[in-house]
Amino acid sequence: MYYDVIIIGSGMAGLTAGAYLCKNGHNVLIIEKSEKTGGLVTSFERDGFTFDAGIRAFENSGIILPMLRQLGINIDFIKNPVSLGIEKDFIYLKTTESIKDYHELLLKNFPSQTKQIDRIINEIKKVIGYMDVLYGIDNPLFMDLKHDRNYLTKTLLPWIIKYYKNIRKIEMLNMPINEYLLNFTQDMHLIDTITQHFFADTPAFFALSYFGLYLDYSYTKGGTQTLASSLTSFILENSGKILLKTEISKIDSEGKKLFSTDSQMFEYDQLIWAADLKKFYGNLEKNSLKRITSNKKSEQTYNAIINADTSESVLTLYLAVDQPKELFENAFGAHCFYTPQKIGLSSIASFKKSINSVENLAGYIYKYLDLTTYEISCPVIRDKSLAPQGKTGLIISTLFDYDLAKLAEQKDWYEEFKVLCKDKIIDVLDKTILEGLKSKVIFGIISSPLTLEKSTFNTRGSITGWAFKNNPIPAQNKMRNIKKSIYTPFEDIYQAGQWTFSPSGLPISILTGKLAADKVHKKLHKLQR
Asked: What CA–CA distance (Å, rounded) separates 464 from 33?
C-alpha cells in the first residue's frame, strides 16, 4: 500500500497535519495505535456522564481558532472561567485585573511575605505582558497573507517588531520557576503554593505566564473530544484514510517502508512522525540506525532522546456525584486549581528516598494527596448535556510521578493503590470545600500514569513530552527556532507534536503539525510539477 504521506499518531499534531495535507489533495494515511483518534484530546462516557480523558480546556494562543477558520470547521466554544483556591479561599479570574485578587489571596495566606509577594506579582504582570505580545495576534501560519493585505500591514508587521523585542526577554527567563522565585522569597510554602501544579523545573516564563493563559481558556460543546472528532471528520471527508488499532514496529527509512506488528507493510513518499519519539528511534531498522551513528550530530540527537527522562504524569479521579451542578458552581466554578493546604510538597521527602515497603508507600501517598494541588473540572457546568439531570461529573487531577504508580504495581499492590487514591482524594475534598461529598458518590474511576501509558502509548504516561530537568532538553526550546523543530536526521521524515518542542501543549502540537504539513506539501508539490 503506497501513500504520498503517512502520519504516525492521531493526536492533535497528526490530525492537524493530516487535515492540511488532505485539503491540499494529497493521498494521506494516518496510522494510530489506539482504538480512537485524539490522543490527549479525548472524552469518554460512563452511565450518562461524559468525562474528558486528557486536556480539560483549550487556550487559543492565536492558533486554534485561526486553524479552524482556515479549514472551514465550525465548532461551538464555551467560555471556560478558571478559579484559584487555597484552603477555603477562592478567587475567580475574569480579566487581567483579577491579578489584584490573586495578590490579595497570597497576602491573606502568607501575611509575613508582603514585600516578597508584591515583587512576585510584579514579575507575573511583566511576563503576562511578554506573552500578550507572543500570542496577541492570530498566528500568521494560519492566515492567508496573499489576500489579507490589511492583516499583513496593520497587524503582522507591527507585531513582528514587538515579537523580536519581547522574545529575548522571554528567553532570559528560562530557569526553573522554583529556582527563579528564590530570588524573591525563601518561604518554600509560598513558592509551593504558586508553583506545585506545574511540572518540575518548568521554565519561569512559562509558569508566570499562566495567569494570563487561564483567561484564554475555552471549552468545546460536547466535551474536548469534539475538537479531535471535527478534524477526524474533515480528514475522512477529504479522502484521507485513518487506520486504527495498528502499531508500527519497524521503520525502513532507506526503502521508505513501514511494518506493523500484524505484518502489514506500508510505503510512503513522505513520513510525519506525530507520536512518541523514543518509539520512533526504537523502531528504526539497522540500516537506518547505522546512518544515524555515522553522523555525529544525528548520533547526539539519537542518544539524547533515547536517554532523556519524560515529564511527570497525572493521577486523575473521575467522580460521578448525586448532587446538582449548582452546588459545585457555587463552591469553585467550572474549572479550578485548588491547594487544600499551604504547607507545600517541599515539606515531604522524595518517595524514592523513603519507601521500602507497601506501608511506607501508602503513607507517602497519604501525605502527598493531602498537600498537592488539584485541577478540578466540572464539564456539566459548561454543557448541561454532559451529566444526567441533577447529577454532576467531576474530573480531579494532580501531577504524579510514574515511578510511584509503577512501584505499586511491582509490589503487587496496584489495585489497592487505586482504591487508596480514590478514597483519599474524596476525603480531602470532603474535609475542605465539599462537605458531605463522601455520601453522595455514585462511582469513582482512578486513572494512573500506567493507565495513561496504556491508553496514549506515551513513554511513562507523559502528557507534555520531555522533563524540563533534562540538560539539554532533547528538543528545540527556543520559540524563534520553532520551524526547525520538525526536522529529523532523515530527509523525507518529519516530526510533530509534544515531543518536538519544549514547553509543549495543545497549541504547540497544532503549530508543529501545520509546519510539518506545509513542508511536506511544498516538497510533494515541487515533485509533482
From this structure: 19
Give 400-459 as a 3 state SS string: ECHHHHHHHHHCCCHHHHHHHHHHHHHHHHHHCCCCCCHHHEEEEEEECHHHHHHHHCCH
Buried/exposed 455-488: b ≥16 CB within 10 Å, e otherwise? bbbbbbbbbbbbbbebeebbbbbebeebeebbbb
Q: Are 341 and 371 in contact (CB under 8 A)?
A: yes
403 with 64: CB under 8 angstroms?
no
Grid cell at residue 392: 454532576
Distance CA 484, CA 515 (A): 9
Q: Provide the pLDDT confidence category of residue 125 given band limits of 50, 70 and 90.
A: very high
Instruction: Give the helix ranges, DSSP H, for 24-152.
Output: 64-71, 99-109, 114-134, 149-151
With beta carbons less than 8 A apart as the criterion, state whether 244 and 37 touch.
Answer: yes
3 state SS of 279: helix
pLDDT digits over 311-369, tens only? 999 999 999 999 999 999 999 999 999 999 999 999 987 766 667 788 888 999 999 99
The residues, ordered by sequence, that sit 6+ positions from 501 with a Cβ below 8 Å of its Cβ are 475, 476, 477, 482, 485, 508, 512
User: Which pLDDT does position 169 carry in this prediction?
Assistant: 82
Are the C-beta atoms of residues 238 and 23 closer than 8 Å to each other?
Answer: yes
Q: Are 16 and 227 in contact (CB under 8 A)?
A: no
Q: Give percent above pLDDT 70 in the chain.
A: 99
DSSP 8-state assignment for residue 244: -
Residues 37 and 242: their CA atoms lie apart, in Å, by: 9
CB of 309 closer than 8 Å to CB of 396 = no
The DSSP bridge pattern shows strands 313-321 and 392-400 to be antiparallel
Q: Cα separation of 521 and 529, whole Å?
A: 12
Please state, as a whole number, how many other Cβ atoms lie within 10 Å of the Cβ of residue 157: 10
Q: Are 283 and 247 in contact (CB under 8 A)?
A: no
Residue 86 Cα distances to 55, 57, 90, 107, angstroms: 23, 21, 7, 11
Using alpha carbons, select from 473, 516, 513 the residue that is nearest to residue 497. Answer: 513
Whole-angstrom distance, CA of residue 190 vs CA of residue 103: 12
CB 150 within 8 A of CB 132: no
Amino acid 527 reads L
Cell 525563601 belongs to 186
